[in-house]
Design goal:
Oligomer: single chain
Number of domains: 2
Strand order of the largest sheet: 3-2-1-4-5-6-14-15
Number of strands: 15
CATH architecture of the largest domain: 3-Layer(aba) Sandwich
Helix content: 25-40%
Number of helices: 15
Shape: globular
Low-confidence stretches: none
Strand content: 15-25%
Structural class: alpha/beta
Length: 371
Amino acid sequence: MRIGVPKEIKNHEYRVGLTPASVREFVAHGHSVLVQAGAGAAIGLDDAQYRAAGAALADSAQDVFARSDMIVKVKEPQPQECAMLRPGQLLYTYLHLAPDPGQTAALVKSGAVCVAYETITGVNGGLPLLAPMSEVAGRMSIQAGAAHLEKSKGGMGVLLGGVPGVAPGHVAILGAGVVGTHALQCAVGAGARVTVLDKNVDRLRQLDLVFGNRITTLYSNAASVEETVLAADLVIGGVLIPGAAAPKLVTREMISRMRKGAVVVDVAIDQGGCFETSRATTHAEPTYVVDGVVHYCVANMPGAVARTSTFALNNATIGPGLALADQGWQAAMRANPHLKAGLNVANGKVTFEAVAQALGYDWTSPNALLN
């Protein structure tokens, strides 16, 4: 199989679908790899390294898409990339389709077979291909939130850790999954006062055992969310329903009553966001203000630390990627139900139920396409 790696074109996106080490793995399995020239240059992965790993280089994305059986990317394909996909071609990347009707329509029209990193499940539960980027985004959420609490960035001028004689900032974390846990670690490390909310009491117990009285854990309901958000200086939204649109936990009315100069960081923005006032932003213009509250809603947060993120992502994606290439997508998914969970669109059909429900498509079971 020929594997194609185009250069990412989303705003300030410098990650790359395959590192030279991953290219070497595909080549060792008997596949050929075609990498767009300069695809990894921004993060120190130059064309010579890709050649040394066994890849051929292409001058353009058009060439990569036209000559490849399987496209490996990082972010969802942009409109011009969707237009280059063809029926039966395999696309392996993050998609986040539920809040994105335009992309979904384009992928359905293309006839391509689209496998989403974020819905592939793990043997022991969880979402192993989403987890590394959630870890990065969770840690970055505190870094970004702390920076935008500074007065020069529009915040109220609060230092998260405080100083002797001055209270630390209060961080509220909605969701105790991968994003929330890594945000929690960084917030505690910064010396902030931290409250984490989740509906999974067992998970709250686990965090309490680890962090003890350094954090406050609360069962998440409308009352506890409202009370905590209104008292917070920084709110991190890290709630995820796999493949579906994120629930709107914080209403516009709550935002209007928050402290002026408070900051919200919506890590769930890829799935539509968990604040009613959220809309996707970019690294070029990361924030906007609603009712005096600074909103940071960058849809590709890990792209800011693109080198770290690329290596972390490849560690997770290489195994399923090799399975798809070695066996073909149908055989690979028949053999592995966790990989089958990644099939979102194929042959003009929506094959992930939550996406079909969110966007009004008829749902086609993946099994119907695997027999």
